[in-house]
Amino acid sequence: MVVSEALLLMPSRPRASEATFERLYDAHRREVFRWALRFGGGRATWAEDVTHDAFMKLWQHLSRVDTETDVGGWLYRVTANLALSRLRRDRSFTSLVTRFFTDEEEAAESADVEVTLKEEARAALEALRALPPREAMVLTMKVMDGKSQREIAEALSMSEGYVSKLAARGWDRLRAAGWEVPDAA
Amino acid sequence: MPRDLKAAITEAQERLEDAHGAQATERVRQRLRGGSRRPRRVRWGRVAGAAAVVALAVVVAGSMREQERTLGRYVVLEGGLSGAVEGAVLTIRDGHGVLRDGALGADLEVSAAASLRPLDDGLEVVAGKVSLDVDHAHPRAAPFRVRVSHGLIEVLGTRFIVVQGELGGEVTLLRGSIRFLADDGQRRLLEPGETLRWPLPPVAAAIEAPAPAPKPAPAPSTPPRTPRPTAAPVKEALGTPPFDVAQFIDELALLRSRGAYEEAVARLTRTLAEGHAPATDERLSFELGSLLGRQLRDAERACAHWREHLRRFPQGRYQADVTQARAELGCP
Q: Are the C-beta atoms of residues B129 and B106 closer than 8 Å to each other?
């Protein structure tokens, strides 16, 4: 069983929901982690936190999920929004200080990444992480996930015009850094 | 030769997912089971090092001027700015950039012609445009405040833009929450996306002003299918609804994801009829039009809705998108 007694205290749920949640967790955990990994520019611990938060959201909304619900689509939207919030929060001074003084696991994993990835792949992740959060999210969803402008606008609650502007800005920055993204234009 | 970003990231993604995916999702399972967040250990070595650095900095600061570039009490974070401080007022003469108010935890994006005066609990925008990003977690003693010509903006942790002209100005809230306290005692709480202009109409005039235009008729031209019975949200049952837009949009997304478009239309129509802040209503109205046009492909209802939308929000934020949607639908 995935769900703890502590979680069960939040809303009152029948036990059948626990089985539903567990089934949904098993069905979607890998894809949610994959999206979060992309949105976070390859940071595994970061992606793990976003995955956790996305499934917490699912648990909170479980009573409204039924067999007709496109849970994968809903989780994608939730994961994208959680990731965007987190990317923006990461840039705050408080967050930087907290990470500097506390996060040993991040450093351990970064070291692991150093030996795992080729130079080009590492540089690509760094280029993506260097973008402003909204530009990074829009470009990732567009280029890596193949989402249309309209789908991105709906997922992130932005207008299509704004999505287009963010993509163009991000693309310009990446191009200036020497990157080519054939289907981003 | 440009490098292929997509190929490089795909390779990185696959390697990282292979290396971390199974273990990470298993750890998430354990955390969900335990109801706890990922533990973080304190790096005591860094804490001690930082303490030593701070002590050293205090000594050095006492004996020499700081080397970082500053304008008054603000540190220039990025951009090429030039400005001058005269009589406690900082005027940006040239360029565009970001200033950090470290003492109060706020970043100010400014450009040429903006003038501002630092205050103990915030700042006064004397003229021009300033975009603010205030860190709500900063341990300041009192709320961050922005003084403008006709009142005070009380910041509850957020991002917003202030434009101060000669006779009045406006503030647009992008994220978070702010409260405008007019000099005549009026108070307005803004929601994200909302713009407030000052001076506000006097209270007496506001009371005598005609009632706002009636809300659009809630009934669509064809009755919606019988909605799936759902439990009313607790806040509605209790009759204490501070309307939560984000929560409502989440619920709409859930309805969309299972194809319950008519139910989503009905929820939106009901919520719009309740009446909320103009920015919220505009957002919800835009969602309703999108549902009618794009998901339900009901051109008749969608065109009627977009016509009403443009009447209610003639200078709206989604004008370009609405125009495009109407063109796609072939609206008259």
A: no
For residue A73, the tally of other CB atoms under 10 A from its CB is: 16
Alpha helices for B181-242 (secondary structure H): 203-208, 234-238
Residue A157: exposure state from Cβ atoms within 10 A (0-12, 13-18, ≥19): middle
Spatial separation of the C-alpha atoms in residues A83 and A85, rounded to whole Å = 5
Domain identity same for A70 and A49: yes
Q: Which of A36, A31, A41, A38 is nearest to A110 (CA)?
A: A41
Distances (CA, A) of A169 to A131, A153, A172, B249: 10, 16, 5, 27
Copy the structure tokens of residue B253.
């997304």
By C-alpha distance, which of A155, A41, A21, A136 is closest to B33? A21
* Domains, in order of start, for chain B: 70-208 (2.60.120.1440), 234-329 (1.25.40)
Asked if A75 and A28 count as a contact pair (C-beta separation under 8 A), the reply is yes
Give CA–CA dist B187/A7, Å, rounded. 39
How many Å apart are CA A64 and CA A167, to the nearest integer? 33
**What residues in B contact A113, CB-CB < 8 Å?**
16
Q: Is A40 on the interface with B (CB under 8 A)?
A: no
| Binary contact (A159, B317; C-beta < 8 A) | yes
For A117-167, how does the pLDDT look when each residue is reduced to its tens digit (9 = 90+)?
A: 677 888 888 888 888 999 999 999 998 888 998 899 888 888 888 888 888
**Which residues share a beta bridge with B79?**
B97
Does a structural domain hold residue A138?
yes
- Structure ipTM: 0.73
Which residues of B102-207 form beta strands (DSSP E)? 106-111, 115-119, 122-134, 144-148, 151-164, 169-182, 187-190, 195-198
Q: pLDDT digit string (tens) for B226-281?
A: 333 333 333 333 334 466 776 677 677 777 767 788 888 988 888 888 877 888 88
Instruction: Indicate if A136 and A183 belong to the same structural domain.
Output: yes
Q: Which residues of B touch A127 (CB under 8 A)?
A: 5
> Domain holding A46: CATH number?
1.10.1740.10
